[in-house]
Design brief:
The chain has 304 residues and is an alpha/beta fold. The protein is built from 11 helices and 8 strands. Strand 4 (118-119), helix 4 and strand 5 form a beta-alpha-beta unit. The chain starts with a helix and ends in an 8-residue tail after the last helix.
Length: 304
C-alpha cells in the first residue's frame, strides 16, 4: 500500500512538472514563431535554429524529470551511428503513448529534433497545436479514394501541399518520425488484423511512401527503431509514476539509397500497383526482422 501511495505521489508531481515545463517552453516558442513571418530566408532559418534549441531544452528537462522520478534501466544499442547533421526518416513499432517519450529521450541531442507528420486538425490542440506549427511539424491532409472520386481535381493536392511544407527542411537537417503500424498494438487489434507478426501489427507502407515522395533526395538515412518493454507494455501513468523497470531500444541505420536505388521504391508508388506491392514486401521483411528480434528477447505485450 505504501509503495502504491509513493507511485501515486511521484506520478502526480511528475505530471505537474511535465505541464509546467511544457508551458515554460511553449511560450517562447510561440512568441518566436511570429518572427518567422518576416519573409527573409536567412532570417527564418536563424529563427528555426533558435526554436529547435528551445524544443531540445524542453525535452532535456522532461528527460531530467524522468531520471528523478524513476529508476528505469535503459538498454539502448545503435546510437553510435547517429549524428545531428543528417536528414533522417525514423520508423518504429508502436505499443504505448510512452513510445514518444522513449524516442525523445533516446534521440535528444543525438539527431535533429524529431518531427511528426500531423493531421491538419491537430493544429487546434490547445498550446501544443501552435507549438507544433511553430516548430515546423508538417500538417497534412490526406484525401480518401471516395473523396477523390467525387473531387478528381484535388488528386495529388495533398502531396503538393506536403512537399511545399517540407521545403523548409532543404537547408536544415531534420528527423521525420512515422509509426508504421498506424496505431498502438493491442491484442484485439492484432487478432482483428490476423497479423502474421506475433508482437506487431501489420505495417502500413503508405505513410512511409508519403514521406519518401514528399521529401525525396533530402533524406539521407532510415532509422529503424525496435522498442521493447520486458516487464509489460506501460501506460503513460505507469511511466511517470516510476513503475517501469526496464526499457530496451534497438536502433538500426540504413542509407535511404538502399531503398530507392535498389528498386524497392520510386515516385510511381501512388500510381503503380506493382511498385506499391514491391515496397510493401520490403516493409514486411523489415517487420519480420523486427518481430524475430522481439521474439528472441522474450518480448511481451501483456499490460502491467
Amino acid at each position: 500500500m505504501i509503495r502504491g501511495l509513493m507511485h501515486h505521489l511521484i506520478g502526480t508531481i511528475s505530471v505537474i512538472f511535465y505541464f509546467l515545463n511544457t508551458v515554460l517552453w511553449a511560450t517562447p516558442i510561440i512568441i518566436l514563431s511570429f518572427f518567422k513571418l518576416i519573409p527573409l530566408a536567412p532570417w527564418r532559418r536563424f529563427i528555426s535554429y533558435i526554436l529547435d534549441a528551445c524544443a531540445t531544452a524542453w525535452i532535456t528537462i522532461n528527460n531530467l524529470n524522468q531520471r528523478v522520478s524513476s529508476r528505469t534501466k535503459w538498454d539502448v544499442t545503435g546510437l553510435d551511428q547517429l549524428t545531428r547533421n543528417d536528414w533522417y526518416l525514423v520508423i518504429a513499432n508502436h505499443q504505448s503513448w510512452v513510445d514518444i517519450l522513449v524516442l525523445q529521450r533516446v534521440f535528444n541531442r543525438k539527431i535533429p529534433f524529431l518531427k511528426f507528420f500531423l493531421k491538419k486538425e491537430l493544429i487546434y490542440v490547445p498550446i501544443l497545436g501552435l507549438t507544433w506549427w511553430a516548430l515546423d511539424f508538417p500538417f497534412m491532409r490526406r484525401y480518401s479514394k471516395s473523396f477523390l472520386a467525387k473531387h478528381p481535381h484535388l488528386k495529388g493536392k495533398d502531396m503538393e501541399t506536403t512537399r511545399k511544407a517540407c521545403e523548409k527542411f532543404q537547408t536544415k537537417p531534420v528527423s521525420i518520425m512515422n509509426f508504421v503500424e498506424g496505431t498502438r498494438f493491442t491484442q484485439e487489434k492484432h487478432d482483428r488484423q490476423n497479423s502474421p507478426f506475433s508482437h506487431l501489427l501489420k505495417p502500413k507502407a503508405g505513410g512511409v511512401a508519403f514521406v519518401l515522395s514528399a521529401m525525396g533526395s533530402q533524406l539521407h538515412k532510415l532509422i529503424d527503431v525496435t522498442i521493447d518493454y520486458p516487464s509489460g507494455v506501460p501506460s503513460f501513468w505507469d511511466f511517470v509514476s516510476g513503475k517501469v523497470r526496464d526499457i530496451r531500444v534497438s536502433i538500426k541505420v540504413t542509407p535511404i539509397t538502399d531503398i530507392t536505388e535498389n528498386g524497392y521504391f520510386n515516385d510511381n508508388y501512388f500510381d503503380d500497383p506493382q511498385v506499391r506491392s514491391q515496397f510493401q514486401r520490403w516493409l514486411n521483411s523489415r517487420w519480420q526482422d523486427k518481430n524475430d528480434q522481439l521474439e528472441s528477447i522474450n518480448a511481451t505485450q501483456k499490460p502491467l
